[in-house]
Structures
1.
Amino acid sequence: MKYQSQQVAKPYFIAALALFVGQIVFGLIAGLQYLHGTFLFPELPFDVTRMSHTNLLIVWLLMAFMGAAYFIVPEEAQTELYSPKLALVTFWVFLIAAALTIVAYLFVDYAHLAAITGNAILPTMGRGYLEQPLPTKIGIVLVALSLLFNVTMTLIKGRKTSINLILVGSLWGLALLFLPAFYFPHDTVKASFGWWWVVHGWVEGDWELILGALLGFILIKMTGVDREIVEKWLYIIIAMTLISGLIGIGHHYYYTGAPAYWIWLGSIFSILEPIPFILLIVFSFKMLMQRRREHPNKAAMLWALGTPIMAFLGAGLWGSMITLAPAQYYMHGTNFTAAHGHLAFFGAYAMISLAIISYAMPLLRGRTANSAAAQRWEMTGFWIMVLSMLVIALALTGAGIVTVILQRAADDPMSFMQVQDKSRVFFWVREFAGVGFFIGLLVYLRSFFIAGEYEYANEMKQALAA
C-alpha cells in the first residue's frame, strides 16, 4: 500500500463481505420456500425474502466497487485521496441506509412502507432490483455523488492513467444509469424501457467496464506486464462492450409492446455480447504468460483468472442461450433466466470483487500477501464456491427445460404449480448446492483470521529442493 488514504477501502471491503453473507442466507431461505411455500410464512413471505436477497446483492457489489475505487484511484493517480474523511462519512451513510432498508423490508408491510416513504409523491417502488423506498434511492444518489466528487478530484490533481480514467468514467456511468430508477410511468412499455436501462445498462454495459478496470489493475500489479499492453487490450474490450451492450439492451424489448425492429437489433447485437468476455479470457491468460514477476498472492491471481472464465460461462454462454427472440419467446421468465442471472452475477461481478479484496486486504493489513496456510483456505473456498455455483446454474437450467417442455411449448400445457412440482428435484439440487456455496464462503472468510505473512524463504527452499 503506497498511500495512507487507501485505508478507507478496508471498511468498504469488510461491509461488502458481511452483506454477501446476508445475501446468501436469504438465498438459502428463498430456496427452501420454493420447496415449501409456507416455510417461515407469514413472518417472512417469499416476496420479502427474494427482495432482500437481490437488494443485498446490489448493495454489497456497490460497496466492493466503491472500496476498489478508493483503493485504486490514489495509487494510480500517485497522490492521496482528496478527502478520506468524506469517504468514511459516505461509508457510514451508505451502510446505515442499506441496513435500515433491509430492516424495513422485514418488519414493515411493503404497501405501508411505500405509503410512509413518499411513493405517492414520486412513484418509484415495486420493480425488481429497484424496490428501494424513495429516501433510499435519494440516499444512493447522494452517496454516488460523494464518491464521484472524491475520486474525480483525486484524479484531477494526480496522474491520469487509462485504468483510472476507465474506472472513474464507469463510476460516472453507473450513477447516471441509476437515474431512470426515478422514472416509473403508467405506460408499461415506457416503464419497461426505463427499468431495463438501469438493470441492463448496469450489468451488461457499465459494470463490465468496472470489471475490466479492476482486472487490468490487478494484472498490472501481479504480473509486471507493461501498462501499455494492458491498456490496449482494455480499450478493445471496452469498445466491444459498449457496441454490443448498449444496443443489445433491445433483447429485453421483444414482447413488451416496443417496435418490432428491436427483435432484429436485440438479437444481432446480443449475439455479440459474449465477445468481450472471450477477449477478457484471452487478455488475462496472455498477461499471465507474459508476466515478469511471480507474485506471492496466488489466491488473488486465482480469483483474477477465474473471473473471465466464469463471466463468459454465466453472461456469455448462458446469456446467449436465451437472448435470441425465438428462444426467449419460450424461455423468458423461466429458470433459464435464473440460471443465467446467478452464474453471470457471480462470475462477472462477485468474483472480480473478491479478486480485488483478495489482492488489497493483505496490503491494507500490512502484508505483501497472506500466509501460505491462509491462501490454501482461500483457494479451497474459491473452488467450493465455483463448483457449487456451476451446480446451481445446471439445476436451474434443468428446471427451465422442464418448464419449456411441459408448459411453454406443449400442445396441452400444464399449470404453473404442476410444472413446479415436476421441477422439485432440480430445486432440491439447487438448495444443496446453495448450502455448499455457503460453506465455501465461510471457508473463504476463514482465511482472513489466519495470521502471518507469506514466507519467501520457505518457497525458495522448496524450489531449490525440487
Note: Residues 460-466 have pLDDT under 50 and may be disordered.
2.
Amino acid sequence: MKHAAFPTRLDLSDAITPPALTTQYLPALTLDLADATPDQAITHLLAPGRRRAFFMNAHCCNLRRRDPAYARAVAAADVLLPDGIGVELAAKMTGQKLTANLNGTDLVPMLLAKAARMGKSVYLFGGTPGTAEAAASRLIHTIPHLRIAGTRDGFGGAADAEAVIADINDSGADIVLVALGVPMQELWLHRHAHRLDASLTLAVGALFDFLAGTVVRAPTAVRRIKMEWVWRLAQEPRRLAKRYLVGNAAFLAHAALTAARRSSFADVQRRFLDITVSASALLLLSPLLALTALAIKADSRGPVFFKQTRVGRNGTPFTMFKFRSMTTDAETRRAEVLASSDRDGVCFKSRTDPRVTRVGRIIRRFSIDELPQILNVLRGEMAIVGPRPALPCEVEAYPRRAMGRLAVKPGITGVWQVSGRANIGFDQMVEMDLTYASSRTVLLDLVLILRTFGAVVSGRGAY
C-alpha cells in the first residue's frame, strides 16, 4: 500500500510502433502462444503501448476448458506466454516446437531488470499479508535501481477493488504484477486492467512466494531436466497432487485427442510409424550404439555425440544428434575444405575430407553415425522418412524452389538415401524431395525404410 510519487510519464504509445512478437498457433491447445526468446518477449512487453500478459501452463489450459469466464479472460489477453514442460509436449504432438519456455519465475525478474534500466517502476499486488513486501525487498536487493511503486496483499488488501485501482494509479506504476492465483488474477485483470494507468499488467501466480522465500524453488539441475513440477509436488503433496498427477495426465490426454482430431489420418499413421520404428530401433540397436560410443572415445579425444543446429519443418531450427565422426575442430575448419566438395550445389560433401576420423569413416560407410537421430524422431523434430536435414547456412543459399523441401519434417532416410546419397547432386536431390513431399504416403515410407537396409549394406554414396 506504500508508494512513492514519480514524475508524470510521457506516453509514446501512439508515436512508436512496438516490435512485433511472433506467435505460434498450437492446434493441440487451440491457443496462440508467444514463440520468442526471453529477450524478444521482454522487448515486446516493455515497448510503448498497453498490453496484458498471462502465462499458460497445463493447469491453466485445464481451467480454460472448464471455466468460461476464465476462457474469456484468456482470449482478451494481449500476450500469452508458454509456461512449462506440458505446453512443450503438447506442441510436439503436432510436430511443433516453441522457441523457449517463458515461465514467469525466470522471465519476470529479467523483465524487471530491463525495466529498471529504462527507469520504469513496478507495483506488486497479491500474496498473503507481508509476502509482496518481502518479494519487493528481494527484488530491490537483486536488481539495482529498481523502483517499487507500491505493494498490496491479496487478502484484506484486495477486498475493495476501487481502493486497489486508486492505489495503483496514485503510485504512478508502469508495471503491475498481480499474484492472486489462477484464475482469480486473470479474472481481476480482465475486469479492471482497462482502468489502470500502468502500460503493462501481468498475472504472475506464485512468483511472490518464490521471491519472498516462502516457497523454495527446485535446484538448477532439476529445472534443467524439466522436472520442477516433481519438486513442487514433493513440497506440497496434499495441495498439488490433484493438479499435477490427475491434472497433467488429463491435460496431455486432451491435447493428444485434440491433435489427433485436427490431424489427417495419414499424419496420425505416419507419427505412429515414426514412434514404433524409432523406439524399436533404439531397443534393438542399443548394443551397437554402446560399442560405437566406446570406439569413438578410444579413437580420438572429444565427445561421443555431435550436436548441430539444423532446419526442420517450416524452417524451424532444432538440435540434431549424430555420433561424432570428425575431429573436434571440424566446424572451424569447414571453410578450408569447402572447395573440395564432391557434390554440385549448396550441400558440401567430400570423399577425402581430412576432418573425418578413422572410426568416423567406418560409421559413415554404414550410416551408423546417423543412428542418434532416432532421438530427434522420438522428440518429433524429425521423421524416419523425409528430406535430408539442412544446415541454416545451406537454407540461406537455397533458391526459392528448394524451400519446398521444408514443407515436411526432415528424415533419417529418404529418396536421396536409397538413390545414392552423396552421389546425388543438389538440384536432383531437391527434385526428389519435392516429389516425395507432394506424393508421400505411409506405404511409400514403408518401401523407403525397407530399401534403406539395402542402401546401407551397399554403402553407395556413403562417405
Note: The two ends are 70 Å apart (CA to CA).
3.
Amino acid sequence: MKKKQIKFLKKLVETPSPTGSEEHVAEIVRERMAYTADWINTDTMGSVHLTLDGRDNGPSLMLSAHMDEVGLMVTYISDEGFLSVASIGGVDAAILPGMRVDVHTSSGKVRGVVGRKPIHLIEADDRKQVTPLDKLVIDVGLSAKEVKQRIRIGDAITYGVGFERYGNGLAVSRGFDDKVGVFIACRVMENLLQLGRSSGDFTAAITVQEEIGTRGAITSAHSINPDIALAFDVTHATDYPGIDKSKYGDIRLGKGPVIARGPNINPCVFERLVAAAKEKNIPYQIEAEPSVTGTDARAIQISQDGIPTGLISIPLRYMHTPTEVISLKDVQNAIKLITTFTMNLDRDSSFIPGIDNIGLDIVDDMFCDMRKNSETDGEAGENSYALDEPDQSSSSFHDVARSAAEFTEEMKELIAMAEETKKLTREITGTNVMPGPTMDAARVAELSDESGDSTLNIARNLDNVAFEYASDAEVMNETSACAPAGFPGADPSLEACEPKDESLRPEL
C-alpha cells in the first residue's frame, strides 16, 4: 500500500468518532472526496453520501461502511473530580483498567486514565473478578473545579491509542471497526472514476451509529434506495489461540476478504461476489451467517421494498479493543474485489432469488415463442403484430427486476388480446392471415382477389383491426379511421383518411 494511502487510513482511525460524535471523520471524508464524487450529501443523522454518476443506465449500487467507533460516555462527575462512565457500543470492562483514554470536550481533548486499585490492595477473592464498568472511574489529573469547568455530562471518550504498522504486513489500531471500511469505500470510488465509471450510479454511504443498532444504515438505505447494496465491515479472525473454529469458522488474516453467506445475504449478490473474486484471482474466504448479521446489512436488506444486499468483511483480531489487528493485504484485495463486482454490473443484471440473470432478454424470448407458434399455425410470423414494449432506453433496472415475477401474467393478457385481434381479422378478411409490417401492397391485392372486396376496403379493414388492437374499443366507436399513409397493408397510392381527433391516432 502506498504511503499516501497509509497516511489517509491512519488519519481516519486516529480521528475520534464515538457513536453519536462522528462529525470529524465525516469532514475528513468530504475533504478527501471533494474532487472525486459528483455529489456529496450529509443527512441530518450525520451520514455522508458520496455519489459517482454512472456512465449508463445500469443498476445503482450503494456501498455502506460505518464511521463510528465504540467508546465511553461521562455519566457522573464526583465531588473529587473523578468520572463515572457508561459504554457506547460493545465495550469489554475487563480490558479497561490501567488504560489511557481521551475525553472529548467542547474545548478539546483531555487525557485520562482508567483507575483500579492495585493488586496489593485487592482482596484475594476479588482479584479474579472483573470490575464492572459502573465501578470504574477515570482520573483526568485535574482539580474537581477544573474538571467541572472543562468536562460535561455526555462527553464521549475513546481509547487513547493510535495506528501502527507491525509484523508481516499487519497494522494495529483502535477504530479499524469500521473506519477501514470507510477507507475502502473511498478507494473503490476513486478506482471507479479512473476506470471510466460503473454502468450505474455508485454511492458510498459512510454511515453513523452502527454500533448501537445500524441506525445510520436504516435512514441512508431509505433515502438512497439503491437497486443493489453491499455492506462492508470487519469480522472476527479466528486464527489465534482460544477460538473454537467449529463454532466460529476458520477466518484468517492475509487470506483475503470474507464474503458472507446466509439469510441476511441475497444469494445472487453472493454468487456474483464469488465470481468477481475468481475472475481476478482474488483470494477470498466464506463466512456462514445463519441469522441477521451485526452489520449495516441487516438494515439495508429490509429497507423500502427490500434491497438485494451482500456483505464483505476483512478479518480482524481483538475486535472492540484498543489493539484491533488487520492485514493490509486483505484491505487491498477487498478494494479490488468490490471494484470488479461493481464494474461487472449492467442493466440486465437480476438479483431475484431463483430467477438470477433475468433481464430484458426475457421479452425477446417470449416473443420468439409466440412467433414460432404463429408460424406453426400458418399465420404471419415474426412481424405479424405489434405490442407496446417498454422503452428500454428509459426503463430502470429496478422496474425490470421487480416486474419480472409478474411478467408471465402480463404476457398472458397480451396473448389473449392478440388472439382476439386474429379472430377479428379472419372475420373481416375471410382469410387466415394477420395484419402487420410484412403485409405489403401485393399481399393486400391478393386478399382483395380472395375476398372479392376492393383493396381500399381491405386496407381500411386492416387499419380498423390494428386501431382496435392499439386503442380502447370505446374510442374506436367514436373515431372514423382508415389506412394512414405508410400503414402496413395500405397501397401507397391510396389516399389516407385521418382520424377526426389527431390525439387519438395510435402509435402504429
Note: Residues 191 and 234 are 21 Å apart (CA to CA).
